[in-house]
């Protein structure tokens, strides 16, 4: 290797954001565990409850998830009866909707989500939380 100083890589935003994301997810998972939910599952249910039924492609875009991972996660909560997946008007599309059982679980788990949101928000501070939300809305940098 030539004379390249890689010391600034120790401050890599990509690495830091990935580690922070895992820490935040683990915090939400810990709070939601008594309800039998993971943070990703809670988010799926909340998006469906807030925005109504939608295609898997639209859901993937909204959540910032790849379709393969999302499809796997959807299968797990469909087995639990929390969502329903049906064919769309276009035979290639599948439409996802939250069930009454999913709505009920979402409602029961909401206070635990709120506790996690509050604790993690306090840990990173409101300025960092606002910056994180702003960055999440930025399609391209």
Structure at a glance:
The chain has 141 residues and is mainly alpha-helical.
Give the helix/strand layout.
Elements: H1 13-32, H2 39-51, E1 54-55, H3 56-63, H4 67-79, E2 83-87, E3 94-98, H5 100-124, H6 126-137
Antiparallel strand pairs: 1-3, 2-3
Helix pairs in contact: 1-5, 2-5
What's the helical proportion of residues? 55-70%
Name the average pLDDT.
Answer: 93
The CATH class designation of the domain at 31-111 is Mainly Alpha
- Helix tally equals 6
CATH-level-4 superfamily name of the domain at 31-111:
Winged helix-like DNA-binding domain superfamily/Winged helix DNA-binding domain
The spatial strand order of the largest sheet comes to 1-3-2
Distance between the termini: 30 Å
Question: Which structural class should the secondary elements be placed in?
Answer: mainly alpha
Please summarize the sheet with the most strands: 3 strands, antiparallel
> Runs with pLDDT <50, length 5+?
none
Report on this model:
- The protein has 141 residues and is mostly helical.
- The chain has a domain at 31-111: Arc Repressor Mutant, subunit A (Orthogonal Bundle).
- The chain has 6 helices and 3 strands.
- It is globular and about 60 Å long.
Notable traits:
single chain; 141 residues; mainly alpha; Arc Repressor Mutant, subunit A; 6 helices; 65% helix
């Amino acid at each position: 290797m030539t004379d390249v100083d890689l010391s600034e890589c120790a401050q890599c935003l990509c690495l830091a954001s990935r580690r922070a994301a895992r820490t935040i997810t683990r915090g939400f998972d810990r709070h939601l565990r008594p309800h039998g939910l993971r943070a990703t599952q809670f988010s799926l249910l909340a998006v469906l409850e807030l925005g109504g039924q939608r295609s898997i492609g639209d859901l993937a875009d909204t959540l910032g998830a790849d379709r393969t991972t999302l499809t796997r996660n959807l299968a797990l909560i469909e087995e639990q009866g929390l969502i329903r997946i049906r064919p769309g008007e276009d035979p290639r599309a599948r439409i996802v909707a939250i069930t009454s059982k999913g709505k009920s679980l979402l409602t029961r788990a909401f206070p635990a989500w709120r506790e996690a949101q509050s604790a993690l928000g306090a840990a990173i501070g409101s300025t960092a939380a606002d910056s994180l939300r702003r960055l999440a809305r930025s399609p391209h940098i």
